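A reminder from the course coordinator: this example appears on the midterm review sheet, so study it carefully.

Given structure:
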């Protein structure tokens, strides 16, 4: 049997469970974008570095680039297998980061890429 036509201007359940204890939990997110600076003695210095020098990702990227240069030009004789494996994993991660950057980069003509890399 068909149900009779009904008009409803509000949902059937008009309640919502609110747990006030959640607001005081460590790690709770209140904004759309929250950056946890961690435990630091000087949070203002940390914020200034992020604003003026670069994000953590940019800083880590530059460190990775510098490490790759060193790995390419320093003799690495006498390493244990575990040390060789650790460097191979780092090189793999650095290569994966490069691939992501290349996919995210806007398409530029080959001449512009050559000029940009030569400039520094």
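Designed residues:
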């Amino acid at each position: 049997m068909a149900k009779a036509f009904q008009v409803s201007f509000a949902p059937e359940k008009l309640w919502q469970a609110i747990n006030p204890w959640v607001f005081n939990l460590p790690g709770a997110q209140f904004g759309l974008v929250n950056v946890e600076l961690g435990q630091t003695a000087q949070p203002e210095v940390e914020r200034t570095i992020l604003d003026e020098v670069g994000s953590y990702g940019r800083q880590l990227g530059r460190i990775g680039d510098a490490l790759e240069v060193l790995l390419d030009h320093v003799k690495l004789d006498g390493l244990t297998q575990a040390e060789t494996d650790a460097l191979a994993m780092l090189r793999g991660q650095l290569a994966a980061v490069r691939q992501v950057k290349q996919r995210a980069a806007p398409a530029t003509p080959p001449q512009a890429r050559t000029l940009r890399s030569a400039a520094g």
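Residues 69 and 98 are 14 Å apart (CA to CA). Helices lie at 43-52, 56-73, 81-104, 110-119.
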